[in-house]
Task: structure prediction
Amino acid sequence: MDCIFCKIVNGEIPCYKIYEDDTVIAFLDVNPKSNGHTLIVPKEHTLDITTIDDNVLLHIFQIAKEIAKTLQNKLNIKGYTLAQNNGKPQEVKHFHLHIIPVYDNEEELIEVEEIYNKITQ
Ligand code: AMP
Result:
């Protein structure tokens, strides 16, 4: 299947991975809305909120809690927005949850690799 997130899950395309277990992978968005913008993706391909398994959905939100704490610890953020697109606004047709950090002032976007190093160091 020609799905970019399946290719990331399978290791065919590299990513800035910040978390992985048997069910999900989380990595930094390559075109971030803010520094530290993270995507949590189920490993098994599924389209959107209408098709995802309930247990997987719960697990994704449990992992979102942990990643949000990590972002708070590692970056100087003031909050974060969780977002999830379906249908027309959904660019990648493989379910994913966005965690989008919010800062005090509008921060200049810096290299994803630099943010990755801050989060994982
Ligand atoms: P959505 O509009 O909710 O489908 O968002 C898809 C997101 O995936 C966008 O924010 C893209 O920047 C991001 N994205 C697309 N390709 C990649 C990739 N190879 N690695 C990381 N993020 C990606």
Remarks:
- The first strand starts at residue 17 and ends at 20.
